What we know:
The chain is built from 22 helices and 30 strands.
Amino acid sequence: MSSVGRGGKRRAGPPAAPSPLAAKRAQPMPPGAPQPPPPAAAAAAEEDMMDEDVFLDETILAEDEAALLLLDRDEALASRLSRWKRPALPADLVSGCSRSVAFQQLDIDYVIGESHKEFLPNSSGPAAIIRIFGVTREGHSVCCQVHGFEPYFYISCPPGMSPDDISGFKQTLEARMKESNRNSSVQRFVKSVELLQKQTIMHYQPNKSQSFLKIVVALPTMVASCRGILERGITIGSLGSKSFVTYESNILFALRFMIDCNIVGGNWIELPAGKYRKATRVMSYCQLELDCLYSDLVSHAPEGEYSKMAPFRILSFDIECAGRKGHFPEPTHDPVIQIANLLTLQGEAQPFVRNVMTLKSCSPIVGVDVMSFDTERDILLAWRDLIREADPDIIIGYNICKFDLPYLIDRAEVLKIVEFPLLGRIRNSRVRVRDTTFNSRQYGMRESKDVTVEGRVQFDLLQAMQRDYKLSSYSLNSVSAHFLGEQKEDVHHSIISDLQNGNSETRRRLAVYCLKDAYLPQRLLDKLMYIYNYVEMARVTGVPISFLLSRGQSIKVLSQLLRKAKQRNLVIPNIKGQSSGQDTFEGATVLEARAGFYEKPIATLDFASLYPSIMMAHNLCYCTLVPPEDVRKLNLPPESLYKTPSGEIFVKPELQKGILPEILEELLAARKRAKADLKEAKDPFERAVLDGRQLALKISANSVYGFTGATVGQLPCLEISSSVTSYGRQMIEHTKKLVEDKFTTLGGYEHNAEVIYGDTDSVMVQFGVSTVEDAMKLGREAAEYISGTFIKAHQARV
């Protein structure tokens, strides 16, 4: 342990250079000049005169001393932190662009800036620049700035609209946009209007394409403005005033880019040799900052070599604050007294950095780099330096988004440390914290804080636990005991200030406590394979990893739906929420429970992925739905239609295969392959990836039904969701009847079977046998019998 604070004695070594005033006094006198008085006389003269010069000299010497101490501190800290740097770039990447660069992308966003003149020499004015952050196989950090991709959306083209009308429409829309965006520096708001032939995803329309206008605007933020103008109405030459339904105008720009470039979350991207340029004006702290055109990117499917993971750097940290008695720490009053840090490479079992920063001295801790500081300001600046030197890709901890990170930002503001919030990968870009409310059907309403650290993913283990597991308590102690069989160090929060105000040994006890609170989130991350699972979920659903951490289920389904629709030349309308008192449907069946204490074993029969199976078996989709008035108009034969128990009509696959069933088939087939590969795999890393993949596929499949039933969602369709639940009710009731009719004493069985409960996709059966083995045997027989009575997609299991 060593101290790197500002206090302490001056280091040994060569004497400091004399101050300018001292140097002036030490110069030899020129020839003929009056000689100075003898030393005694000089001393007496100084006693008689004002001591101003001596005071100034001492001040300068004191400033020199302070500067040297500060330099010592900075050099010592820099030396220690430099050990944690990433590996150096190879010479050919430092100097040129002669080799291709492949990296696994971890986050994608965009900024408004100027297009690269070499790639787009005719561009002018502000443009959207996509930024992709990632890591190479060798562990080098990458910031790739992608140019040339522009935001767009569609509207249906009114009948009779001529090329001249389209030109006039563009001019009128441009004028309206200028009026709505008077303070903008954009020179041309509407970049282009193009006539295309496409189909809407809504309803079955055999071989019937429509004319659509693709409207390209200057900036992503202008899509909403343009949409509003068109929805309110605009004059089109001789056609008069028209209002429009817009298509795909609510798609996030980064997601639109990923879909059009066939990029999925967490996949590998390659920049071919000669197709990129090293950034001339460096904007980030990444080792490689590159510029390219979006059309030159190569996106690799996550298969084979490209299914592997890059060595992401993961920083787990925890802070301790000196709270007042009886008060929860408040950043306006209570200082940060310790910060513990663990740095781990993805896939490694142990951290390669264990560090704790303490306010005041701290006794050594075996295997830990202890840094002690004299002031809280020094701690905060040292932590900022650690972030910059270690350059983590992912920052984790427990409740870091709602407490630790906002607390550090607030303390820096109180202490007026303006340079502290520069924690991201973009130079001069500060961490932003804002209050948020997250609401979804699965997770409910939650208040939190959105912390933006550009280029780094924040993974809060508390939020992940609340999202993914139903537990009685979400404290770090309880969660660690549940999953790890471990607990925090035994330090009650009420004695933290006393330990801090004690001596080096008491502060050591507090440091061990702080380190354990930083280590447990890393252990949970590894134990639950969170990085594998979330990367695989991002790959399967096609969204950035950050979307999985901050958004609900619907964005994942929308991403898959958009990708499939694009392949079929379909466009998706913006549909405003259908929520009203009339827009309800009957939910799943719950059979009344036969309450009691059962000594004999109960077998549970459930349908494998019931709702996905129903949607696949009956081809339920937006594009297969037939409105009642179209059944006669299209002259569709009854044998080519499904009529659901709720009365809706869908065409069978031989007329048109639904997109949602296709998505579900691919998800469940991929899950089946992943589970089969998992059984064969021996390598622990490969097993972790495959297990993460099969879990991601299961969750993704189950969320498709919910997407159609979300009345305030992106694309609600109650005809689909009500059909699914009506089939589910029918199947559960039919299963109960089949079991109780077949497994009887009259049928040759020892006892009459009794269904004691049923809910959504399963029934619980008492066969009357005494052993679990016999109950399982009869359960398997029942599952096989029931599955044979349903359409192939519905498979009962025990």
